[in-house]
């Protein structure tokens, strides 16, 4: 195992020179970085009532006592509050990034100052150091994994299978990771239980729709200083994330075009009032392209060849494979940075196609991005926390494979949120419950 890869606090040069999520903020020293990271975390926690409630419960009950949690996540202020919650519950936590451009160095340094947490996340690392940091997390010999994209689970299965016997289970946060896990499970290769947090209602209905929709559009607007009003915004994919992007773009007076490969989703988008067409046709008229599929090669050479001058290309899927940058680079006669976070590819005919955040997850990898709104991530991370607790308390109930989050846990998180907002709601009477659960009642 790669035990020699240093925690973030030993990357003092990276912190001192560098930035937090691309902001031009130089830190005098490591202590200054930690202070700024803590300030961000404290602000986020003020607006995370679910995690506040769970912090009290976990600190009092110590449900994770003796566990070692290995995490590969977007290391920023909201995630950091989940990490500290798990540590307060009794766990030793080791964490690194799940995307080379989504780490906030100051937040990573603040986490690493906690005696129960080791953070290896540093923004802007190359592929070698990215995977070396994952190896370093695995060197802690985790008993539970928490992933965003499945790189941690994959690494353990491929390189450290001897650890699987002592792993209680895991949790996966995002669509791409769940797709990979389900494929792995179908092949009989997933050797411990993992909860598909992404697929639970509290994640899909809020994080994917409102979180991805709002944060992606906000990041693109702030990065480019351009408006959506009157523009043709092409949304690649109409899953939960695509629905959110389309809905929020329409709310900002854009003309929304949806591309899809699934007939029912294409019909759904049509019935919601959006234009639906193949990407080959959308490429000719689009002004802003946002991919949300989790699949590769959504936008390729055949599309670049027909795009208008000045188009914006952004990816709101997990990995940087949805926009084929190799094809784009082959077509370009010149590449240059048009603006912070915007790479212009100039074609032979003078057209400029602009790629945001290197084609990576735009709402987390762009220079001024901050990720999903705090309130949204409070809900998703609340589900992550109760799932980890469930793995420890009821491990024997789950065999190796992908598992849905138990409905009562999802509802627990929703009820904490409603209580914090002072919102009351109805409940079924005994008679109503009996009626709904019986097949004997006729007309």
Task: Describe the overall structure.
By secondary structure, the protein is α/β, with parallel strands linked by helices. It has two domains: 8-203 and 373-421, Adenosylhomocysteinase-like (Rossmann fold); 210-365, NAD(P)-binding Rossmann-like Domain (Rossmann fold). Helix content is 45%, strand content 15%. The chain has helices at residues 12-17, 30-46, 49-61, 77-88, 105-112, 127-138, 151-159, 175-186, 201-224, 240-251, 263-271, 279-285, 301-304, 325-331, 362-365, 374-393, 407-421, 430-436; strands spanning 68-73, 92-97, 117-119, 144-147, 169-172, 193-196, 232-236, 255-259, 275-276, 288-291, 312-315, 334-339, 342-346, 352-356, 401-403. An eight-stranded mixed sheet has the order 9-8-7-10-11-14-13-12, sandwiched between helices. Helix 13 links the parallel strand 10 (288-291) and strand 11. The longest helix is centred in the middle third of the chain and has 24 residues, at 201-224. The protein is globular and about 65 Å long.
Compact description:
With 443 residues, the protein is an alpha/beta fold. The protein has helices at residues 12-17, 30-46, 49-61, 77-88, 105-112, 127-138, 151-159, 175-186, 201-224, 240-251, 263-271, 279-285, 301-304, 325-331, 362-365, 374-393, 407-421, 430-436, and strands spanning 68-73, 92-97, 117-119, 144-147, 169-172, 193-196, 232-236, 255-259, 275-276, 288-291, 312-315, 334-339, 342-346, 352-356, 401-403.
Task: Give me the Rg, rounded.
Answer: 22 Å
Distance between the termini: 66 Å
Mean pLDDT over the residues: 93
Structural classification: alpha/beta
Helix content: 40-55%
Give the beta-strand count.
Answer: 15
CATH superfamily of the largest domain: Adenosylhomocysteinase-like
| Beta-strand residue fraction | 5-15%
What's the multimeric state?
A: single chain
**Which of globular, elongated, flat, extended, rod-shaped describes the shape?**
globular
Number of DSSP helical runs = 18
The domain tally reads 2
Low-confidence segments, ≥5 residues, pLDDT <50? Answer: 18-25
Cofactor: NAD(+)
GO molecular function: adenosylhomocysteinase activity
Main location: cytoplasm
Binding site for NAD(+): 174-176, 208, 237-244, 260, 295, 316-318, 363, 372
């Amino acid at each position: 195992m790669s035990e020699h890869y240093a925690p973030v606090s030993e990357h003092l040069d990276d912190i001192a020179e560098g930035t937090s999520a691309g902001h031009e903020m130089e830190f005098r020293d490591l202590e200054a970085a930690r202070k700024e990271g803590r300030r961000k975390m404290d602000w986020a926690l003020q607006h995370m009532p679910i995690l506040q409630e769970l912090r009290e419960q976990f600190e009092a009950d110590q449900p994770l006592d003796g566990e070692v949690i290995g995490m590969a996540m977007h290391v920023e202020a909201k995630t950091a509050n989940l990490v500290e919650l798990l540590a307060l519950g009794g766990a030793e936590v080791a964490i690194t990034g799940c995307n080379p451009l989504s780490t906030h160095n100051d937040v990573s340094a603040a986490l690493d100052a906690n005696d129960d947490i080791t953070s290896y996340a540093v923004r802007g690392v190359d592929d070698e150091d990215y995977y070396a940091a994952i190896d370093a997390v695995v060197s802690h010999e985790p008993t539970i994994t928490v992933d965003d994209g499945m790189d941690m689970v994959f690494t353990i299965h491929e390189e450290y299978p001897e650890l699987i016997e002592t792993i209680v289970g895991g949790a996966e946060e995002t669509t791409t990771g769940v797709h990979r896990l389900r494929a792995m499970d179908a092949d009989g290769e997933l050797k411990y239980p993992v909860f598909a947090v992404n697929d639970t209602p509290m994640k899909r209905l809020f994080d994917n729709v409102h979180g991805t929709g709002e944060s992606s559009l906000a990041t693109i607007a702030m990065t480019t200083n351009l408006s959506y009003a009157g523009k043709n915004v092409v949304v690649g994919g109409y899953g939960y994330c695509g629905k959110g992007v389309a809905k929020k773009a329409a709310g900002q007076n854009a003309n929304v075009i949806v591309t899809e490969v699934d007939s029912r989703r294409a019909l759904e988008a049509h019935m919601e009032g959006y234009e639906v067409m193949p990407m080959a046709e959308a490429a000719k008229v689009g002004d802003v392209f946002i991919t949300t599929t989790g699949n590769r090669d959504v936008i390729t050479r055949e599309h670049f060849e027909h795009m208008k001058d000045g188009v914006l290309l952004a990816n709101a899927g997990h990995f940087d494979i949805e926009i084929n940058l190799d094809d784009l680079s082959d077509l370009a006669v010149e590449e240059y940075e048009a603006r912070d976070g915007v790479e212009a590819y100039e074609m032979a005919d003078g057209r400029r196609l602009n790629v945001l955040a290197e084609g990576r997850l735009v709402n987390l990898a762009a220079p001024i991005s901050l990720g999903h709104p705090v309130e949204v991530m409070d809900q998703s991370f609340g589900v992550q926390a109760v799932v980890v607790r469930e793995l420890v308390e009821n491990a024997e109930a789950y065999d190796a494979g992908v598992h849905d989050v138990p409905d009562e846990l999802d509802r627990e998180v929703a009820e904490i949120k409603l209580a914090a907002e002072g919102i009351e709601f109805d409940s079924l009477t005994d008679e109503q419950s009996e009626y709904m659960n019986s097949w004997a009642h006729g007309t």
